[in-house]
Structures
1.
Amino acid sequence: MKKIIQLEGLDCAGCAIELERRISKIDGVNTASISFANQRLILEYENEQALRTAIEKVNSFEKVRVLEEKQTHAHNGHSHIEHAHQHGECLCGCSHTEHMHKHCQTSENETNIKGKKAIKWNHAHMKKWAMIAASALFFIIGVLVGEFAQGVGAKIWQYVAYAIAYASVGYPVWLATLKNVRQGRIFDENFLMALASVGAMCLGEFAEAVLVMLLYQIGELLQAIAVGSSRRSLADLMALKSETANLLINGEQIFVQPEQLKIGDILLVKAGEKIPVDGVLLSDEAILDTKSLTGEAEYKHVKKGEEMLSGCINVGGMYEMKVIRPYQDSAVGRILDLVENAASGKAEPEKFITKFARYYTPIVCCLALAMAICMPIFAGLITEGKLYFKDFARWLHSALTFLVISCPCALVISVPLTYFSSIGACASKGALVKGATFLDILNKADLIAFDKTGTLTEGNFTVCSIQAEGLSEEELLELVTAAEVGSAHPIAKALMGEKTSLKATSVREFPGRGVRAEMNGDVILVGNAVLFKQHAVEHPHIHSPYTLIYVAKNGVYCGVVEIGDRVRKEAKDAVAELKALGFERTMILTGDNEPRSYKVAHETGVQEVYATLLPDEKLQKVKELKREGVVVYVGDGINDAPVMTVADCAVSMGQLGSAAAVEASDLVLISDNLHALPHAVKIAKRTHKIVVENIVFSIAMKAIFMILGLCNLLPLWLAVMADVGVMLLAVLNSFRVRGSWK
Ligand code: ADP
Ligand code: MG
């Protein structure tokens, strides 16, 4: 069983790692993956007991709480729909005046939770700012009293001021520390800061103790703001989703949430509004802006009866549409589902930092302990030749700086955020990446193989010529129509004539070859040369730049249909861009004939052609290619689902309608635009660069601070500030991934 659990209050990345590790250990939990960036726990578990234990674990962990649980691809809200429809009114029972409907919207669960959360967040921030301001004020008072007043009384006042300053920022840290220690978690940042400040006090450095806590809290707050802004960037993407839909019942408009719509509902879409769910146009014509789906500003004219994908914006007038898919199965629902759950597949660098953090902190803490104890003894033995603590205060101070810099926050926070933003950036360009791992693969990939039909070409075939032998063209078309009725291949659609009185009794489809049908006792073969060879049927060898579909009746060749299919208009540019991005070899793997394949290769700039491949030969070819490099395979999901499972990164052409292709692939190009692929590769490359920069920068800075700390050149407060600084710089750097954002 698999469940997605939305969490709340997960504001430290180290905690996310720790919580994930703890949940994974629960009996009956197969895998647990926490995405820090969107605060989600994806849990695969065996029994309810395990689920309950996991939820308890979450709720007892720091400030983290379970916000909502949902089954993957959960369909809900339908019972509400019935209700709303029956009574013809809003869920909350109010009348539907414009100002009232706002109230209805928020009565629905989700918005409510989101709204509350936003308010609570700001509340939490305000409280922290107030705390910090109070602490800073008392700290300054303390410093001033120390500077300008003398005597015992003044000293006391100074300490009181410091104590208040310390308490106002320190108490949440201490609270968290106690809670964690009770649960057996010691090496967390709260504990380290608490320890460092106590150490400073032991050294008599009260001002420093206050500064450590104060700076740490300022850092935490800035981090929360930066992380919040990153998290919100996906909410920008959520702008795909309409807040409300205008449902028409008996000519009356009712405002409902997209989730409440069901198939067959009639909606009114006004100018400037987004289409809430997939549907067909009932009015005569509509003009849609597909930018939010594809990332490229493009106007699309839709005629009566044609399909419209949700997420597009109506830039024309007002029109009516009929719902053909419920929200969850609509383009927008699927996109958001994919993107939100993408973070579960963790990338190599993410796994690396998880491991790194696991060892780094305890090692540095042990070093600190060793330094506080061994170094003074060592120094004493060397200089004085006897056992005593020499320069204890100096070494203790060094040890404390080690404690402060032992927190790997910068890495642990910035790396997942970078991937998260990157997945969002790809989505806004029309490419849905199913996990951070695939960004890594796109970055490394050097071979790219395309399927031809439906991928490099549009897949809309038109009949160019018909040659019939021994029967009329109409009779030939009739045979073909009857044979192809059951096939979903784009070729079948093109070959089917208007009508036929023939009815096939048994049909068998040979993937990548054609079909064999029986009707009225005749055996009809429709397909390519491979199919004919297999059935040992002779046919003339025609050389043509088109796709040739041969027809035979009872083992005798009786004609050929030439069908043409245009190359996608963006294919050439997209292939050129991919080459420029470092793909050394580009190739076509197709089941079609050679002349046609070479022509497409020539038109698109693809270098290598492997034609007349059956689906399993395509699979073999990709396996071979994998030995030579990292392979990206781009297909349309028809006849190539098996190949998709072996390619390092399988890309499927949009077709949000075809669930199989979307399921089998690792990256989906929404609305069939090949341009989205080079965009995604660019983003993947940039992501990789930024992640490496952040890792190198953070580790290098830590090393420098350690050396400075060792030489006792780093005051504690500066160590905290440097730590916070590195973390913020790394997070800000991760924002650069959004360079191409919308
Ligand atoms: P591609 O690899 O270019 O996407 P496919 O593997 O889907 O092509 O199909 C390869 C070839 O098999 C087609 O070019 C066509 O000749 C033949 N074929 C496949 N399905 C059918 C069908 N339903 N009817 C006739 N021919 C077909
Ligand atoms: Mg194909």
2.
Amino acid sequence: MAVERVGVSFEPELLSRFDALIREKGYASRSEALRDLARESIAKAEMDSGSGTVMGTLTILYDHDASGLSHRLVHVQHEHHADVMSTLHVHVDERNCLEVLLIKGERSDVKLLADRIRALKGVALGELALVKADA
Ligand code: NI
Ligand code: NI
């Protein structure tokens, strides 16, 4: 495969931090690390746009003592178009629960449901990861 060389300018401080990070991650070269970053950014941009069916995981941390939260969490899942196919619930400590929801649906519906859940008072975190699920 033909390659094209590009020159990249860095501030010294940023470059030394980047070098430390890529050493830690085990990259053989800056070039490979930069290519991976480019691929990741492109994949992320593609995931964040367009339509079609997706599957996603939403990871939330919430305080089960927050007023009405457990009820609102279930309610919001029932009233939205995206399907919550499975949930994994782990009790972290006296108050906090970690939950992973596996959601399938139209991209905009999955994102909307994730936004509604994240917006509930008492919900911390809220990482959504999507993969395309079109046939
Ligand atoms: Ni239910
Ligand atoms: Ni719990």
